[in-house]
Amino acid sequence: MSDKRVSIVVPALNEELTIGEFIGWCKEGFEKAGVTGEIIIVDSSTDKTPEIAESMGVRVLRVPKRGLGQAYIDAIPEIKGDYVIMGDCDCTYDFREIGKFIEKLDEGYEYVMGTRMKGYIEKDAMPKLHQYFGTPLTTKILNVMYGSKFSDIHCGMRGMTLDALKKISLESSSWEYASEMVLKSVKLGLKITEVPIRFYKDREGRLSHHKRSGWFSPWFAGWINLRVMLEYTPQTFLKIPGILMSLAGFIFIALVFWNRLTNPDSIFALHSLLIGTLFFVVGLSFYQSSILSEIYYSFDQEKVKKYRSRITYNRLMLLAFGLGVAGVIFAIYFLNYFIRGGFEMTGIAYSLVFGIISFIVCFQMFTFALLFQMLYKRRYGG
């Protein structure tokens, strides 16, 4: 098969019960796949796990206990293989079958996701709530948000090229690293596929890390995984809603403004103007935030270049200045109305509301121009 060197990289925390058998599985997997490779255990144990691993000729990186994601981050500089296989050393994932991953990587795929849902799940290996509700639901959410086709985003066994792992540039230190890797593989346009795997229940006498941490642990893991899905793609739920909301708000405001110009004596519904203002301001904030997020993460370089060519500091500042001038004009009109009325309000001061709207959007554009310029310069230096 492959002439590439393969690195199996797994974190370990007090796994003396299974570490020996796991290493045996890895070596068997190398032999069956016909590849040379290394096994790296990223260890934070207080038991005999590292001693057992070292006695079997395995590289052990001793690191503080700072989370699964951080363990992988710590290991990246030490990896020597062209291909990287990740997973757990508790013998729940069958590392004797790493050949499936290597075959796909040899075919040119950059990120190969294991899937328990299309493979084999041993009885009692996964809680029913996770198997039939939690995992399918969060997988569906990610697929909808990112336009992907995964079947099991929480599967811990996955393979990728070392270049792909470095491109992903892991930032999450805890359980959410799994979702970060998956979604970044999509956002970066990596060539992705899945392979079915076998998933076994814990060995007799072993408690999973979730059970060790208490009943709340899997719920917390699910929550932070959902958080990272939202964090890396705010444009998914900000851009389109922002455009629609700001457009609807603009129509409301324009209708009220036109009514005041054509029929000054008409008392058009003030509520419509306030609702329009709310929609326009919030929608504009959503849209601006989505643009800033795309520049910050810069997954799509071409889109960022388009933003840079269309949205410039000078244009935004000129727009902010124009809105400020409009706000001043409305304010002068209101003061004239107020003074002529003997410093009493005899009706709804629409000019004041229009002035407030102009000033709000003026300051929004001003701050957006500054943030856009600073963020772009920090990311691209120009």
Structural summary, described in words:
- This protein is of the alpha/beta class and about 375 residues long.
- It has 2 domains: about 5-230, Spore Coat Polysaccharide Biosynthesis Protein SpsA, Chain A (Alpha-Beta Complex), CATH 3.90.550.10; about 235-380.
- The chain contains 14 helices and 7 strands.
- It has helices at about 20-35, 50-55, 70-75, 100-105, 130-145, 160-170, 175-185, 210-215, 215-230, 235-260, 270-295, 300-310, 315-340, 350-380; strands at about 5-10, 35-45, 60, 85, 110-120, 160, 190-200.
- Strand 2 (about 35-45), helix 2 (about 50-55) and strand 3 form a beta-alpha-beta unit.
- The longest helix has about 30 residues, at about 350-380.
- The protein is elongated and about 95 Å long.
- The model has no long low-confidence stretch (mean pLDDT about 90).
Question: What's the arrangement of secondary structure elements?
Answer:
Blueprint (H helix, E strand, L loop, with lengths): L5 E7 L6 H15 L3 E7 L5 H7 L3 E4 L5 H8 L7 E4 L12 H8 L4 E11 L6 H19 L11 E4 H7 L8 H11 L4 E8 L9 H5 L3 H15 L2 H29 L7 H28 L3 H10 L2 H28 L9 H31 L2
Parallel strand pairs: 1-2, 1-4, 2-3, 5-7
Antiparallel strand pairs: 4-6, 5-6
Helix pairs in contact: 5-9, 7-9, 10-11, 11-14, 13-14
Structural class computed from helices and strand pairing? alpha/beta
How many angstroms does the end-to-end distance come to? 46 Å
Rg, Å, rounded:
28 Å
- Helical content stands at 55-70%
In the CATH hierarchy, the architecture of the largest domain is Alpha-Beta Complex
Number of helices: 14
What is the beta-strand fraction?
Answer: 5-15%
User: CATH first level of the largest domain: which class?
Assistant: Alpha Beta
Average the pLDDT over all residues and give the rounded result: 88
CATH topology of the largest domain: Spore Coat Polysaccharide Biosynthesis Protein SpsA, Chain A
Question: CATH homologous superfamily of the largest domain, by name?
Answer: Spore Coat Polysaccharide Biosynthesis Protein SpsA, Chain A
The domain tally reads 2
